[in-house]
Structures are given as structure tokens and as C-alpha cells.
Amino acid sequence: MTTKSEWRQCEACTAIILREQVVCPNCNEEINATADILRELTGTITAFTTIHIAPEKYREDAPYTVVLVRLDNDTNVMGRLLQGQPPPVQGSTVHLDHFSPQNGPVFSA
Amino acid sequence: MNKSSPKLRKVAVIGVGSTPFGKLTNDTIVSMSVSASEEAISDSNLAREEIEAVYLGNYVGERLASEGVLAPKLANRLGITGVPTTKVEGACASGGLALRQAFLSVALGLHNFVLAVGVEKMTTSPTDAVTSALATAGDTTLEMRTGLTFPGSFAMIMQAHMAKYGTTREQVAMVSVKNHANGINNAKAMFRKATNIEEVITSRSIAEPIRLFDCPPITDGAAAAILCPLDIAHQFVKNPIELIGSGHASGPVSLTQSDDITSFSASIRAANDAYKMADLTPKDIDIAEVHDCFTIAEIVAIEDLGFFPKGDGGPATEQGSTGLTGEIAVNPSGGLLAKGHPVGATGLAQAYEIVQQLRETSSNQVDDATVGLAHNLGGSGAVATVNIFKKA
Hints:
Radius of gyration of chain A: 15 Å
Distance between the termini of chain B: 22 Å
Largest interface: A-B, 32 and 37 residues
Number of strands of chain B: 12
Strand order of the largest sheet of chain B: 3-2-4-7-1-8-12-11-9-10
Number of strands of chain A: 7
Distance between the termini of chain A: 19 Å
Low-confidence stretches of chain A: none
Structural class of chain B: alpha/beta
Order of helices and strands of chain B: EHEHHEHEHHHHEEEHEHEHHEHHEE
Helix content of chain A: under 10%
Radius of gyration of chain B: 19 Å
Strand content of chain A: 35-45%
Order of helices and strands of chain A: EEEEEEE
Shape of chain A: globular
Oligomer: heterodimer
Strand content of chain B: 15-25%
Mean pLDDT of chain A: 86
Helix content of chain B: 25-40%
């Protein structure tokens, strides 16, 4: 388990950058920020699903819950809900718990 | 097509073919593509050696059936080696893309006689291998590495549609009930058995709230069509069907890239382009084969295609407006849910049903059907094709 964030924040407009790219998808400025940020990121669950039939690679994890989260700065992200937490409800608040090497962002209630 | 588009020739479908859909134990991915093609060629009365080009839609053949270069292999089996052959891939819209490319090659005057075929072999692979293969249509970094699956994506879409529009679980389940009922009469369908709302809602959980009966089966199958210029089509068949409008668009590759996951921008754009080319509106469509890869996908599709206002898809389904005798007959073949969904074949299987309807030879014949639409979707909205057919 790693706690290092893969996400960066654009210095020009503060948008969150989810993947490798040259310019910010929000303000189109070249991305300079390298800040490892966002441990304190929070957002709202817009939709979620509990996966019972998983791809081969994640078979051992099932059932697990995947959440579509609208972060407080309006960026949409997909992540796992921390294993063992009860199924969420739409509109409930979550925070970024950590980044997993296998699953990417993991959120917690 | 924009203002600078070249003048397009009118295009007709003169032959169609389809294998039965199901678990075809004795057929390979290559043999199925040959069977469907031979049936389409025979149906068209065209001499095999007249075929000038082949477009083949396939999604996961290399992964699940360990077969590449399918288009040359098909041409080789058909005895037409030498003609240009192209495999196209757009996830579950691969078949629709093959038809679209065949249409363009005839419309643009590149070829007179073109074979479009779609094929998939899936039942020899375990379910989790199929799930993994299909999941390659999603963006890995943005969503699929979380363990999201396509049933999972559409589970989120169902949840969002219910929250936004008040669509009920029963209305969503009605799609499965209707399409299974339509499948009963379709001799090519994998499932020919009725279901009911209770059975859909209590079936095995796949990705909550998506249940087994909200999903299409894992299926083998192939379907094919022969296209030629409309002005010579009557030399071959009495009842050519004009392919009067065609649209194709790309869309977001992840649900995270859309602020409204209850609609697919690619479907809307492809439909608008097809309606414009055909000089028709959604009101003119009598029958439609839409991409019901999950129950909720049909409700989203009938809204995106303009048959019903956004949010009215659930009530329309519940009221029977999409039934065989409704306002617009949707998925008279049984759709992907009952007919089966051999992913690369689906777009051409949709065309197969529309052509049967317009020839008045469908097993679920809709009265007075003169215009039909086929809508094929790939990924969670990454690709869409819309093709519109009319009695010639």
C-alpha cells in the first residue's frame, strides 16, 4: 500500500490532474505543478456499484464497491471504497484514503 | 457529413445472413464468419467473385479465440483472396462500424459490391476472462483499474437515471421482460423463454443494482450484409433495402469525463448525423434495434435517439410504447438481452433484423414498417453508430 498521490494540482487554476498529460484539461496551461497533494481531498458519491462478478485480476477482492466521486473542486474521479466499509448512499461524503498500486484511488467514508 | 462532403451514391442492402446466436460448440470464429457471409451472398444472388471489398467487425477475437487477421482469413475461405479486407474495432460497436465502412466505400464510389460482417466467439472462455476482455474498452487509469466492469458502469448509470428522473427498478426490468418475450419467436435467438419483473429483479447479483437478467448472455455468432449501389440493386433482388442515413461518433472513454452519465453524447451525435443524411426525424422511425447491452442501456438509447424526451424512457417502456404494437417497436428481434450479444457481430445482427422487418419477413413482423434504425454502442459511450434503413 502506498500513500503517495498520483494526482497533481495545476498551479495556474488549481484543477486536479488525474493522469500524465502536458497541458491542464481545465485551463490549457502547461502543467508545472509536482506537488504531492490531496491527502485531505473530499468529495460526494454521485453513483456506486458493488461488483460481484469481477475481472480475473480482481477475483479475490469480490465483492467490492466502486464509487464515482465528484471532488469538491468539481473533478469526477472513480475509485474503490475502502474494503469493509458498509455500502454508501448517493450524495454521501467521502475522503481520499490512499492510493493503491493495484486499484488507484481508495476512498473512505 | 458537413457541407464539403462529396456527393454520395445511394446505397442498398441486397443480402443479409446470420448464424444462430448461442453456444455454438462446433463452430470457430472463422467458420461462423464464413457461414453468415455465405448466407448473405446467397440471399443477394450475387456471384461470390463479384465481391470487391470486405469489412469485418470483431472486438476480442485475438484475446478469446486466439485468431488475428480475420478479414483475410474470411476472404481466403470465400475464395476471393486479393480483394482489400479490413478488420475494424470499436468494442461492442465493431459490427456497426463494419457496416458503416462498407456503406462509405459504396457511397463514395470506391466499390460496387461490398461484404460487411461481424463475428465473435465467446462461450469457450470463462466468465471472468470475458469480463476482463470486455473491460479493455474502458480507460485503465481513469476507471478500470479500480476493478470496475461494464456491468458496474451500467449499474452506476441505472442508479443515476433512477435518481435523476425517478425511473423505477420495475420500469428498467420491463426492458428485459419485453425483449425476452420478443426473443421467443426469433429462431436465431439464444434465449427463447419469457421472464417476468420478479425474476429479473431477484436474479443473481452481477454488479449491484445490475442483476443477471439485466445483462445479455455470453454468446457466439456472426452476421453479414452485402451492399451495392441502389441504382443496380434491383438487378439482384426484388426487394432491396436502402441504407438511407449513417452516423458514427466517438464519445468519452470514462464515466468520469461526463457530468451527466444518463446520456451518451456519441449516440446523440451519430443519430443526428444519420437523421440529417436521411432527411428524417425520430418521428419517422417505425422500428429500431437499439444497443440494449444492459436493460438501462435501452432506456438511455430510446431517449438519446430522440424517440422519447429525456426521463420518459422508463414510463414509455412500462406503458408498452416500445412493444411490437407500440408507438415505436424497439428490439423486435429480442435485442442483445434475448437474442444474445456476440459483441463484434451485434451491429450486423441489428441490420439483419431491420432488413427482415422491411422485407416483411421477420418472425415478429411489425405492421407497416417502412423505416428502421440500428443503434450500436461501444464501451460506456466511447463509440456509437446509427444506421437508418428504408424500403426502396
